[in-house]
Amino acid sequence: MKYLRLIALAIIFFSIIFLPYWIYLLLLFVSIVLLPFFWEAIAFGFLIDVLYGGGIGEFSSIFYSTAFMALVLVLVFIPIQKRLRFHV
Amino acid sequence: MKMNYLPKNRSKDAYSKKILTSLVIFLLLAGLFYFFGGFIIRVASPVWKAENAVTRSFRNIGDFFSTRKTLLAENASLKTKIESLEIEIASLHLGEDRENVLLGLLERKPEGVSVTASVLTHPPQTPYDVLVLDAGSSDGVNIGDKVYLPEGPVLGLISDTFSKNSRLKLYSSSGESNPGILERGGVPIEILGQGGGNFKIILPRDTEVEIGDRILSAGIEADLLAVVEDIRLQPTDSFKEVLAKSPTNIFTLRFVFIRP
Which residues in chain A touch residue B129, judged by CB atoms under 8 angstroms apart? Predict the structure, then answer.
């Protein structure tokens, strides 16, 4: 389980640096759904915003950031996850 | 006396704890990334440069295996293309000289030196039509500077600067709205970014527009912004939807000029 998480972290990190956005956003979503309490998605969201987005300069812009979307998804999937058949 | 307590809802408690933890993580990371954003880009820059170099060398290896016949055909078509482009460039220079004289007379000649920058990342790696460039505030780049293609067309504005890097937001970014001029008839228009180097323009039904028409920036310099690709018009509509595209492929950009 621990290794699976580490592998997921490494794959997402490298896909953010080198691959098109639809790949790393999809991987991020799948990891949030499959892995328990995947809070690292928030950090990846901030990394995407800092590298490719408009940054996090203003307070209002934070609500339109990838990090905020990741936070919302993580919170939404906490209660649902255990009821999912494919949950790791 | 025996007391009966209601059992504590443990799952609800755990959920609240996770929500709280997530919020604390979010706030901490927001602070961290706010202060170290520039540093992170600086660290990532050499990796992107290496990636670009590797990608280019792989493309060259692919060219090496092209057949002789294909290369000859390609050579011939490129020669024809070069000839036509040379003529086009010559005519453009003529117009440019005339324009410079006129702008000089009006005392509105563009000033400042342009900075050449190479593109480190571009779509589809970046999701919002944002490009990371390898020139920053130490090279004289400022927020709001215009970014041009080496051939002349304007691409967008600098949205963020760091010491050695800067971020370019393309005019074609989704949700971006900018004034422009439809060259045919000199009609002032509002040009809406659609992402991926695409634009949308809504025009009254009677406005004359054809595929291939040029859309210019609204400033006195009137730089090329986009070229009309498609026109959509329903018989019942009073407006027509014009789809335009950036004159260059933003997915393969290598160098740009930054001007104040």
Answer: none
User: Could B15 and A46 be called an inter-chain contact, meaning their C-beta atoms sit closer than 8 Å?
Assistant: no
Those residues whose C-beta lies under 8 Å from the C-beta of residue B137, and which sit 6 or more positions away, are B161, B162, B163, B166
Q: Most confidently modeled of A21-25, B110-114, B207-211, B235-239? A: A21-25
Mean pLDDT of B185-195: 89
Q: Could you tell me if A50 lies within 8 Å of chain B, comparing CB atoms?
A: yes
H or E, element range at B119:
strand B115-121
| Cβ neighbours for A86, distance < 8 A, ≥ 6 positions apart | A34
Asked if residue A43 has pLDDT above 90, the reply is yes
In angstroms, the CA B159 to CA B145 distance is: 8
**Cβ contacts of A52 on chain B, cutoff 8 Å:** 121, 125-128, 130, 132
Does pLDDT of A24 surpass 90?
yes
Please name the helix (run of DSSP H) or strand (run of DSSP E) that holds residue B168, with its range, or none: strand B166-170
Say yes or no to pLDDT of B150 above 90.
no
Domain B108-260: give its CATH architecture: Beta Barrel (2.40)
Structure tokens at B102: 């006129």
Among candidate residues B142, B170, B218, B161, the one with its CA nearest the CA of residue B37: B161
> Does the global pTM surpass 0.80?
no
Span B151-164, average pLDDT:
86
> Where do the domains of chain B lie?
13-90, 108-260
Q: Structure tokens of B43?
A: 């660290």
Nearest to A42 among B19, B26, B160 (CB): B26
Tens digits of per-residue pLDDT, B194-204?
Answer: 988 899 999 88
Residue B66: per-residue pLDDT: 66
Residue A11, chain B, CB below 8 Å: the answer is no
- For residue B191, the SS3 value is strand
